[in-house]
């Protein structure tokens, strides 16, 4: 029997978006200003999205 370890903070955070919500947000962001991210920032965003930084839901002190 394979047992998983309880994640820090009690819950894994999943910030990935799919389906109808993704299509809606894709349309909504077309008019927004673009920003450039370096490879480290891109990695941080990906890690937040997939829950690797759980229980963090975003950047500390920032609203995204």
TrEMBL record:
SUPFAM superfamilies: PUA domain-like. Gene3D superfamilies: Sulfate adenylyltransferase. Keywords: Nucleotidyltransferase, Transferase. InterPro entries: ATP-Sase_PUA-like_dom (IPR025980), PUA-like_sf (IPR015947). The keyword Transferase applies. Residues 5-62 form the ATP-sulfurylase PUA-like domain. This is Sulfate adenylyltransferase. GO terms for molecular function: nucleotidyltransferase activity. The keyword Flavoprotein does not apply. PANTHER family: PTHR43509, SULFATE ADENYLYLTRANSFERASE (PTHR43509:SF1).
